[in-house]
TrEMBL record, chain A:
Gene3D superfamilies: 3.30.70.20. It comes from the Bacteria. It holds the Pfam family Fer4_11. InterPro entries: 4Fe4S_Fe-S-bd, 4Fe4S_Fe_S_CS, FDH_Electron_Transfer_Unit, Formate_DH_Fe-S_su. Coiled coil: none annotated. Residues 24-54, 123-154, 155-184 form the 4Fe-4S ferredoxin-type domain. The chain crosses the membrane at residues 285-306. This is 4Fe-4S dicluster domain-containing protein. It is found in: Cell envelope. It comes from Actinomadura yumaensis. Keywords: 4Fe-4S, Iron, Iron-sulfur, Membrane, Metal-binding, Repeat, Transmembrane, Transmembrane helix.
Amino acid sequence: MGRIAGPLDDVAGDAGHIGHPPRMGFFTDTSVCIGCKACEVACKEWNAIPEDGLTFTGMSYDNTQGLGADTWRHVAFIEQRKPLGLQDPGVEHGSYDAYDGVDVLGMASEAAARGGDGDRGELRWLMASDVCKHCTHAACLDVCPTGSLFRTEYGTVVVQEDICNGCGYCVPACPYGVIDQREDDGRVWKCTMCYDRISDGREPACAKACPTDSIQYGPLDELRERAAARVEQLHDAGVDDARLYGDDPGDGVGGDGAFFLLLDEPEAYGLPPDPVVTTRDLPSMWRHAGVAALTLLGGMAAAYAAGRRR
Amino acid sequence: MRAYVVSLLKAWWGDAATEDNDFRFDYLPRLTGSHSTYETALAQIDGACKGYFLMGENPAVGSANAKVQRLGMANLEWLVVRDFSLIESATWWKDGPEIETGEMRTEDVGTEVFFFPAAAHTEKSGSFTNTNRTLQWHHAAVEPDGDARSDLWFMYHLGRIIRERLAGSTDERDRPVLDLTWDYPVEGPLDEPSAEAVLAEINGYGPDGAHLSTYDQLKDDGSTSCGCWIYCGVHADGVNQAARRKPGSEQDWIAAEWAWSWPSNRRVLYNRASADPDGEPWSERKALVWWDGERGRWTGHDVPDFKADKAPSYTPPHGARGPDAIAGNDPFILQADGKGWLFAPAGLVDGPMPTHYEPQDSPFDNPLYGHSRNPARQVFSREHNRFHPSGSDPGADVYPYVVTTYRLTEHFTAGGMSRWSPYLAELQPEFFCEVSPELAAERDLEHGGWATIVTARNAVEARVMVTDRMAPLRVQGRTLHQIGLPYHWGPNGYTTGDAANELSAIALDPNVHIQEVKALTADIRPGRRPRGPGLPGLVRAYRRRAGIDQDTGLEV
């Protein structure tokens, strides 16, 4: 049995793989995501995932809403009244009259009215493709009673659909709310990082389809180096709020196999700020339960003894 | 020019085209007027156009003033629709918007409608050509399902059957069809014509029957044939050059051996401009072609788009004409003077200098001129194609907002390829309108609710998306609100909705006859649109209130 919390260098080795390839992962750089959703479609096409609802959500251009049994890549669209680096969003027209330039030529009759709504001056439209994090310490895998969920030689976490019995223990165990039961069959489904494709030396379907390389696939060590350099580059370009999410092996899940470059707090993207592997506290829970049981027994004994004295 | 035309006539009519009969130039069909798409629709309403082929086109939702398109089709004798699914242009006669409103009854429609399911690109061989002029070949991966067939199959067998019916005819007017070279080999279980045989015919043959390799070889004496001179060379050496797929890692960054570009496999037009007046690359990193003084020729990574031996120092002699009048440092060889142009001095109906006119329907007067609209524009005032009062004209405030139409990433044009695809439909599942928070407040529009948008042409309903991305504009001292409408929807398919083109008018630019769908005026109100006869009633009420008649908006 492998470790269930804390930093872990060799996740596949810890799971018993000998002579395994390097740990592979996703680095999703949301700063270059253009919101085309090609990743969502490529994922569904490759993995034959059913369409799961024609719902107009009103959440900007995001009608997918979140990851689930039938959505393994999800592109979030977030509209904010905030600046994006040094870009001019071009949405503040309150103090600018389109005919001012004509006015200068003395052709327009009316002078521009000045003044506008100050908080309308900034706009940024964040797009981010979410996916299963393939945690270093994956609670879904820890709680799976059938061994359907397993750690691959690439360090990824995969459900074996022919073994899953639909117990659903893994669903509340996931700190990100990723893994999910399919309504009409009860089994759980999630991103496999295209285990079939990567076993054949190909990149996952979403990364292959991504036209801007927002989704990058490769050895996790390399991706972490590349990501750190990208954050530095963005900071130098004035995008001060660029930060990595899920890259830290010291975090509550031991670092993610799929990590992100975000332009705001994780909560803005619907991501938990401080995810913790839900099985981390199991040993101490058992200890507490033991103490509680002993206390209860002691109390009962004391009560019994006291009753006898009366 | 004559070499190109003669070679084209030889490709079409082969042995029947000879020097003695002027290579059958008289076989070419004559234009009887403008056959632009909008004038064709109006000619259908007028009864002048009686038959219509729609091949991968869905005007019932995709063309400006969709109602006029449907009314045109309803006045045809026959209509052929070839598409992947039963698009709106194939079913308007039984379930279109006019059937719902009672403006049209199926039993009154005399049009005979034929629907032919079309094969997808994976089910047929052929080429993709993007705006970069590169022809990329694709090979059929599977046979098409059911009755679906390729466009090539349809055209070839239609021609074959027509020719069989006409066989033996002595009528002169049948000669152009009977004399056509229509002898393409067919292959496979469906008798699919060989797309590569068609490509080879387009490429052309020399007197010895050899495949031509460049349009310089074309002759005006009937000894060469070529279906399209700019494609000459795409089948050089009998090899399908468009099917080349040499990996980028095995060639330089120009990738000249990936597919084939017209003309002459040239990847960048006017690439002489990548070199300075003396013929040296402006930038080594971005060099395309340069002058090789020793050999006295242009050379480089790309195929030079310049007369190969014209030195940079060449100065045209006085009185030079044609290509000889273009100097060695004038890269833009298809312009009369070889120079880059900031404006077109001749050829534009409304040129030569760029200027500003207001759109056909505009909330503002033109601040530049006394008249607002382009005097050379094309407008057609019809019962179902009325225009709005503009600017300071009375009634303009009945349609106080500006609509602009656009596309979404998830859908493709009129939706025939995307609205039937579940994976795309679920990503943009409903027609919506985008409005600013300010307009939403002004008109009581609820985010996620419904709104009805009205013009003099029609009214549509859409889900409301309130977003900061739509910003009120400040124009001539007042605030102007915009309404954004993606135009992909229609009543058929996996995701359905009203078509934005119900709102647009047929008002065309004078040069290339493009419809004005990027800026038009409209009103917006909360809630869904009326059903049945109430819908045209609402549109009529707006027209009355704005005082619209057949002359509105026709003034310059």
